[in-house]
């Protein structure tokens, strides 16, 4: 089952939409030579992209450049649409740490030709996600250390306080376009330090107060 499991209750919730933000940290926008966005950049992964803790990412063979992007993931806990920013946090069920695995060569080509990112971002196993921590256990989701180690070496290290668009604004914006349902996930964007991984690499992503995610590259 494509589900996310809550750490405390052990409840497994089937995952629906996986909404993802592009360029939500200014330093990452800079390293991609892209401008700061005026409104959230949203793309989707299918629920079949989900990979559980302990799994292995298996990229399509036509890509030669698989990149890691560590991100805080918001788990939606209540259905809603047209949610105001002031009510948005009531719709959060919990938080997890995830990896937005990206075929960078395929994405670069798509950007160049004005084509969609679905292949570069949505292939099977492109969305590893940890156990979820219930929202009431996370005091301030906008001040959590977010990091990624590859084979024991730190590749990404930042804090969710550096996000350009805050969770409440993201929920308000995306819910004006897509009805949010229990079990939908929102990947909130990656900080700087993205880079390549190869077969045999071991990745360990960590989000303070929330958890750790360990996966391998097939
Ligand atoms: Mg990303």
Note the topology.
Blueprint (H helix, E strand, L loop, with lengths): L2 E3 L6 E3 L3 E5 L3 H6 L9 E5 L4 E2 L4 E2 L8 E3 L1 E7 L15 E8 L2 E2 H10 L4 H5 L4 E2 L4 E2 L10 E6 L2 E7 L7 H9 L9 E3 L7 E3 L4 E6 L3 E7 L1
Parallel strand pairs: 3-15, 5-11, 6-18
Antiparallel strand pairs: 1-2, 3-4, 7-10, 7-16, 8-9, 8-15, 9-12, 13-14, 13-17, 17-18
Bound molecules: magnesium ion.
Order of helices and strands: EEEHEEEEEEEHHEEEEHEEEE
Major β-sheet profile: 6 strands, mixed
What structural class do helix, strand and pairing data support? mainly beta
Please write the CATH class name. Answer: Alpha Beta
The unique ligands bound to this protein are: magnesium ion
Please give the domain count: 1
Strand order of the largest sheet: 4-3-15-8-9-12
Distance between the termini: 21 Å
Q: Write down the overall mean pLDDT.
A: 97
Number of H- or I-type helical stretches = 4
What is the percentage of strand-forming residues? 25-35%
What would you call the shape? globular
* Strands, total number: 18
What quaternary form is this?
A: single chain
State the CATH superfamily name.
Answer: Fumarylacetoacetase-like, C-terminal domain
Spans of at least 5 consecutive residues with low confidence? none
Task: Provide the CATH architecture.
Answer: Alpha-Beta Complex
- Helical residues, percent: 10-25%
CATH fold type: Fumarylacetoacetate hydrolase, domain 2
What is the CA-atom radius of gyration, in angstroms? 16 Å
């Amino acid at each position: 089952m494509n589900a996310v499991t809550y750490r405390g209750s052990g409840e497994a919730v089937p995952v629906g939409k996986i909404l993802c933000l592009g360029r939500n940290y200014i330093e990452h926008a800079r390293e991609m030579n892209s401008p700061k966005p005026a409104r959230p950049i949203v793309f989707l992964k299918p629920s079949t992209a989900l990979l559980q803790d302990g799994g292995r990412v298996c990229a399509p063979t036509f890509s030669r450049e698989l990149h890691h992007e560590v991100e805080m993931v918001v788990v939606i806990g209540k259905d809603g649409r047209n949610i105001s920013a002031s009510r948005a946090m009531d719709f959060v069920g919990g938080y997890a740490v995830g990896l937005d695995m990206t075929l960078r060569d395929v994405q670069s080509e798509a950007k160049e030709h004005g084509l969609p990112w679905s292949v570069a971002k949505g292939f099977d196993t492109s969305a590893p996600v940890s156990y979820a921590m219930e929202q009431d256990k996370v005091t301030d989701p906008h001040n959590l250390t977010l990091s990624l180690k590859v084979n024991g070496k730190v590749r990404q290290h930042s804090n969710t306080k550096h996000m350009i668009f805050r969770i409440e604004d993201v929920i308000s914006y995306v819910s004006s376009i897509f009805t949010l349902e229990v079990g939908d996930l929102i990947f909130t964007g990656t900080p700087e330090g993205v880079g390549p991984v190869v077969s045999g690499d071991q990745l360990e992503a960590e989000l303070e107060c929330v958890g750790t995610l360990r996966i391998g590259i097939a």
